[in-house]
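Dear H.,

Thanks for agreeing to be a second pair of eyes. The structure we're designing against is below in token form, covering all 511 positions.
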């Protein structure tokens, strides 16, 4: 089957990027190439509003180099979009003509409304956030949106970005205290001019390179043990700490900060102040990074063009289906184990055993889709592979803590291995939470043993109390010896978690 590749060129005010995607079996796009050029076209927009000849030459030479890279892929489609600097250039018609003549690209200039919309679309199609404010600060403009129930309610584009704020407020590369104070006052006034941004108490979702660098710095300072930037969450105190920390450094030290791109060292402070000022204005409940942004939003719109809506019905379900497809998981087996796990969970819950809450079932169900997925790589060390793959792979629709909990449940092997996986994150959980995750993992492992031959032999189970002990009757439709062997072997993990003895009774259904 031929692979389908798609490409997009994003002509920004600070950077230009070529991103090439491979369309997966499930229909989602996976990034396979990302080429960045720090063109800083905004610096070539003159006082008369024209993009200078030098600026146009930088644009053309960068696009030509991108074209050479793109031509090494059998592309289904190539899209070229431009944002604030080209949008604001008085000679944009000439620029479009030059681009077409020298590269053959039909460059589309996005309106400020379109730029804001595509950022919003990327966020709601790749995160679990249903209500929030997005902020995308580029070199020459800053787009903000407010969405509720995943629907866009408000959007606005401010005519300032990290480069223009630096030019307008800082006399040198690094600001004085007075300049930072003036910048903050200006930004607060700008944000407060939009009533719909005030005191929303919803997540603030950052998009773009400035937000990405901010998160990378935070993760490096904290020696954060999980992989991935997308859906990473920070607090107000984290933003304030990083801003103050960066402000104390000279340019030489700033350029060596782990997680900060050297080419962004002189504009990270304006970008950070934008996030912090907006956070305070909105009384945000947290700062979340979305690695998906404008480029992804453009393709999300095209991917959903025949659906009648630009929104994926369920972000997490899409991601789970992607995992099932990537690791060739047995859907029939998964569904049957889910059925057995559902019976066991709710019968324990109804009897008040294990301190289970109804909402715990959603976590069990989620982990059941990918339980022991590492078997795809190696059967003998499947538990280790399962944990590593899930803990270190971005899963759209799951925040980092949720992803970690799923990885711990889906990789459950025994108490010892569970503790090994948990150890780097032990302080993230209360003692009762650790016990609960272990219980849910042992429950899943037990239910998987009941379908060890993938024949759906055990059709249902019934739980009953025999004093302090538990009796589980398993009704089967055929020879059940392999399942009986595995279940007797695996029940000890559930017994330890519940602190109860479990007796198993296998019964063959009468035809």
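And this is the sequence the design step returned. I haven't edited it by hand at all.
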């Amino acid at each position: 089957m031929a692979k389908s590749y798609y490409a997009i060129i994003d002509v920004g005010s600070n950077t230009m990027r070529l991103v090439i995607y491979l369309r997966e079996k499930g229909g989602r796009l996976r990034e396979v190439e990302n080429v960045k050029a720090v063109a800083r076209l905004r610096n070539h927009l003159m006082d008369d509003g024209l993009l200078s000849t030098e600026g146009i030459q930088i644009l053309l030479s960068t696009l030509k180099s991108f074209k050479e890279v793109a031509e090494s892929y059998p592309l289904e489609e190539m899209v070229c979009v431009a944002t604030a600097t080209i949008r604001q250039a008085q000679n944009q018609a000439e620029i479009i003509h030059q681009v077409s003549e020298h590269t053959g690209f039909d460059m589309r200039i996005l309106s400020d409304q379109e730029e804001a919309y595509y950022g919003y679309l990327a966020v709601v199609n790749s995160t679990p956030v249903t209500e929030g404010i997005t902020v995308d600060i580029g070199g020459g403009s800053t787009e903000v949106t407010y969405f509720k129930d995943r629907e866009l309610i408000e959007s606005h584009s401010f005519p300032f970005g990290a480069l223009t704020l630096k030019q307008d407020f800082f006399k040198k590369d690094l600001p004085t205290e007075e300049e930072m104070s003036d910048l903050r006052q200006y930004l607060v006034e700008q944000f407060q001019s939009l009533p719909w941004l005030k005191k929303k108490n919803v997540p603030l979702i950052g998009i773009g390179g400035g937000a990405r660098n901010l998160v990378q710095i935070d993760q490096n300072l904290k020696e954060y043990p999980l992989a991935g930037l997308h859906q990473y969450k920070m607090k107000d105190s984290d933003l304030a700490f990083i801003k103050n920390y960066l402000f104390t450094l000279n340019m030489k030290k700033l350029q060596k900060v782990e997680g900060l791109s050297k080419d962004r060292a002189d504009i990270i402070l304006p970008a950070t102040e934008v996030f912090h000022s907006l956070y305070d204005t909105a009384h945000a409940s947290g700062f979340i990074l979305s690695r998906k942004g404008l480029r992804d939003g453009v393709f999300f719109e095209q991917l959903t063009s025949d659906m009648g809506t630009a929104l994926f019905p369920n972000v997490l379900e899409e991601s789970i289906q992607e995992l099932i497809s990537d690791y060739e998981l047995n859907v029939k087996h998964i569904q049957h184990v889910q059925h057995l796990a559902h019976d066991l969970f709710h019968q324990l819950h109804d009897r008040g055993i294990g301190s289970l809450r109804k909402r715990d079932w959603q976590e069990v169900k989620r982990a059941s889709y990918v339980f022991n997925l590492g078997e795809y790589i190696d059967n003998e060390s499947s538990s280790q592979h399962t944990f590593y793959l899930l803990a270190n792979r971005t899963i759209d629709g799951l925040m980092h803590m949720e992803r970690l909990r799923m990885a711990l449940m889906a990789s459950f092997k025994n108490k010892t291995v569970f503790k090994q996986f948990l150890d780097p994150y032990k302080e993230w959980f209360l003692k009762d939470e650790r016990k609960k995750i272990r219980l849910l993992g042992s429950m899943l492992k037990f239910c998987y043993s009941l379908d060890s031959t993938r024949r759906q032999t055990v059709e249902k189970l019934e739980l009953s109390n025999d004093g302090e002990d538990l009796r589980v009757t398993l009704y089967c439709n055929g020879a059940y010896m392999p399942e009986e062997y595995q279940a007797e072997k695996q029940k000890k993990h559930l017994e330890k978690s519940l602190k109860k003895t479990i007796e198993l009774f296998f019964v063959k259904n009468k035809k």
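Two observations from my side: The chain has a mean pLDDT of 94. The longest strand covers residues 29-37.

Warmly,
E.
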